[in-house]
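=== RUN LOG ===
request id: a7f3
mode: sequence -> structure
chains: 1
length: 186
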Amino acid sequence: MSALKLERGASSHSAYDLRDYHAAGEERHTLAVIVDNEAGALARVIGLFSGRGYNIDSLTVAEVDHTGHRSRITLVTRGTPAVIEQIKAQLGRIIPVHEVHDLTVEGPSVERELGLFKVAGAGDKRVEALRISDIFRAKVVDSTLESFVFEITGTPEKLDAFAEMMRPLGLAEVARTGVAALARGA
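=== RESULT ===
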């Protein structure tokens, strides 16, 4: 079997996503959507994306207002500026949606993601994994004689870099939460 040959612009993260986003003028945008916390609200938002062929790179959802029964959906997507504007307009027309914010264009924002990384290895590889985890400020949350589970919080790029460093040391499994983001300032 021959190795997969990835062309310029191909993603190193997935063999299914070989488009060059920069060639088409596509940009990454983080959207914060405030919705009613009711059955089917998330399905309607996600249905908008799947029905129109848009992709979601990251998705997090949690109730943020218990008394008002409101949830915040933070999602990361890619598209041309026109497509992003269309997505925001269509999201605003969905019934349980109260607010749509494009954190990418509204000003500075803070993005964080939590990741759990299981690294299996012995001897020098275990020592090197611990050394690299210190550099990335990752915490060891589980340890056996055969593996470590590291917890790391940071930007998606930081988690990607940590995964790339751990891959040759025995990266066995990864679980990531998706991006949580807030606008900076008042």
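=== NOTES ===
The helical segments are 41-52, 81-93, 124-135, 156-170.
DSSP finds four helices and nine strands in the chain.
=== END ===
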